[in-house]
Specification:
The chain is of the alpha/beta class and 280 residues long. It has 2 domains: 64 residues; 201 residues, 3-Layer(aba) Sandwich (Rossmann fold). It is 41% helix and 19% strand. The chain contains 11 helices and 9 strands. Strand 8 and strand 9 form a beta hairpin. Helix 2 packs across helix 4 and helix 6 packs parallel to helix 7. The longest helix has 16 residues. The N and C termini lie far apart (62 Å). The relative contact order is 0.11. The mean pLDDT is 95.
């Protein structure tokens, strides 16, 4: 089978996607699997694929037609200019989380002294590693409940050459660190199973532990992080959250109940109130 024939097969099989999307997926797989770049593909439409190449691309096609994320197929997601390794053990980083990370970097671009930072529910480590890479004054720790996620963090740490300490920790358990933090950041699980039918079809392949909060208490993890901050955050420190806009009322009430009144909400690129910064 040559490239044109394979392209046509992708278009026919991926009929839930546009022609542009199916062509894009094929080009990405050819590049990531076999280093066949877009120029080669365009100049050599009659290129005959080897049997092993064809088999791998057909396997990829079978997964794509089930809405399997291409990021998992190629084990890569670009996050603020760095390639992060991802698989089904971690959430795929989103553009909104890039915005959250940029907010912290922008707020601290004039920093000239050490600041201790902790990323709670770190997943792939994308927030913690990016903060550490882009601000030499950040002393960064990242925690997650998932051993498998922490293994992915270590892979990314080695690939991207950052200096982050990764620890296994369940935020629902009380813990006092030996030295307090200046910044707490978290993109915790904030969807509920009631929302599962309204989110993307490919989300079903991502780890539920990273996606879903308890149905009976959708802001549980925010409450627990506020408790954690009372023990581990310096006075005048900051908490940065990515939040579910559906529960903004509940989050405001919870913060007020904890006498946290210096609060700044921020919209994401879609105009939804997705982030909050709290001065402690």
């Amino acid at each position: 089978m040559n490239l044109i024939e394979l392209r046509n097969l992708y278009r026919k099989t991926l009929n839930d996607f546009s022609v542009r999307e199916s062509d894009y997926y094929l080009k990405i797989l050819l590049k990531e699997y076999f280093n066949l770049d877009f120029t080669f593909i365009n100049l050599n439409p009659d290129y005959i694929l080897k049997g092993s190449q064809l088999n791998k691309l057909l396997e990829g096609l079978d997964k794509l037609k089930t809405n399997y994320p291409i990021d998992y197929l190629i084990n890569k997601k670009i996050f603020l200019d760095n390639d992060f390794y991802v698989n089904e053990d971690v959430l795929i980083p989103r553009p909104e989380t890039e915005e959250l990370t940029n907010w912290i970097l922008e707020d601290n671009k004039e920093t000239k002294e050490k600041k201790r930072v902790i990323d709670i529910a770190t997943g792939s480590g994308c927030i913690a590693i990016t903060l550490s890479l882009n601000n030499k004054y950040f002393e960064t720790i990242a925690v997650d409940i998932s051993k498998k996620a922490l293994e992915i963090c270590e892979i990314n740490q080695k690939r991207i050459f950052s200096e982050v300490t990764f620890l296994e920790y369940d935020i629902r358990e009380e813990k006092v660190f030996s030295e307090k933090f200046d910044i707490i950041v978290s993109n915790p699980p904030y969807l509920t199973l009631n929302e599962a039918s309204r989110i993307g079809k490919n989300v079903k392949f991502e780890p539920e532990i990273a996606l879903f909060a308890p149905l009976e208490d959708p802001i549980l993890y925010y409450k627990e992080i506020v408790k954690f901050s009372k023990l581990n955050l310096n006075k005048n420190g900051f908490i940065y959250f990515e939040i579910n806009p559906i529960y903004i009322k509940e989050i405001k009430q919870m913060l007020a109940k904890n006498n946290l009144n210096d609060v700044n909400f921020k919209d994401d690129f879609e105009g939804k109130k997705r982030f909050v910064k709290i001065t402690f």
